[in-house]
Amino acid sequence: MSTQKVRKMSKQPGSFRGRAKGGALAIVLAAVLVTASACGSSDSSGSSSKVDSAGLKAAEATVAKASERPTTIPVTDPVGKPIPKGKKLTFVSCGVEACALQGPILAAGAKSLGWTVDQVATDGSAEKVQGAIDAAIRNGADAVILNAADRDAYSKQIADAKKAGVQFVTCCSLATAGDGLLYNTATDKQNGPIGDYLAAKVVTDSKGKANALYVNISAFQILKQVGDTFDAGMKKYCSSCSVDNLDIPLTSLGKDAPDRIISYLRSHPKVNYVALSVADALGTGLPAAIKAAGLGDKVKIVGQGGGTQNFADMKAGSIDALVPADLFSYDYLMLDALARHWAGVPVNDAGPPYWLITKSTVPSDTSKPFPVVEDYQAQWDKLWGVS
């Protein structure tokens, strides 16, 4: 069987599987996948010698906007009514570091509202998560928070929670709100702009002469929209640029993913940009592998997400740009949905803010999660009337 599947300009990265522990959040979360086909006559780099000037100007404008650090949280209207105190929340961790990091963020936000959070660790398996939700319902939780909730995997638990009057909220999932699920944020549609930002950065940086490889993990359908908007953005900003797609299987994560990417780059020497659907899962070890392959001066890396090593690589100049996951917005948006529900006001259908960062703008301390909006806590407290 072939060690890698290739396809040209693919639009279908596969389907999400709840069994994939925390991959969905390594978006948290996780990672997708061709025969190179440059359009027009090619120069020595393999991209067309004709630059789409209008597209390049549009890409530059997008990058300028995306590079500005957001200063406002996604929700701006105050709750306006008293929010009940004393609520007990259960946060069921999905089994990876990104989920574990969210527990303390949720606890801090809940404290502002006079609530408590029971943080339950699991290995991310459906069986363990189901058991944790069942226990939360039995123990009288007022709400359950589960990232990347899959309706198919947890349909019984969601139904049981609804029957018991327990609210269920999630993020980073394909699930739609309703029928027992109060709220979902960081949805596939809300994440779409990330792909456009990355495409604009590639086109701007290459001055309209890019041959990009989009690397994805097709097992996570939540990532599909980012891949679609990356492809669309490349076409919009640079009609003569090319985009190929490489799918990395789940079994390669943490193992030979960099080797698969390097193998593709060697067999497709025109590629000069690699865009990662999830930098955390796909980018660790990749800059070193690219350098060892003698491609360090040619191939640049952009991507979604980013862990400690990715940011260190960026500071060293080995990663060109990232759109980091804002765990703080994920958590506070879920808390806000609960607050508004219990206060009897409409829940906002809001997604997290996005920020395109580079070596010159990456925060100095990336050893722990950082908020995209620096004074997020004060802004949320004001909306909740607890400042």
UniProtKB/TrEMBL annotation:
One of the Pfam families matching this protein, by short name: Peripla_BP_4
Record GO cellular component, one term: outer membrane-bounded periplasmic space
Subcellular location: Cell envelope
Gene3D superfamilies: 3.40.50.2300
Domain called Periplasmic binding protein: residue spans: 108-344
Main location: other
InterPro entries assigned: Bact_Solute-Bind_Prot2 (IPR050555), Peripla_BP_I (IPR028082), SBP_2_dom (IPR025997)
GO MF entries: carbohydrate binding
Family in the record: Belongs to the bacterial solute-binding protein 2 family.
Matches recorded under PANTHER family: ABC TRANSPORTER PERIPLASMIC-BINDING PROTEIN YPHF, D-XYLOSE-BINDING PERIPLASMIC PROTEIN
Name this protein carries in UniProt: Sugar ABC transporter substrate-binding protein
Organism the protein comes from: Aeromicrobium ginsengisoli
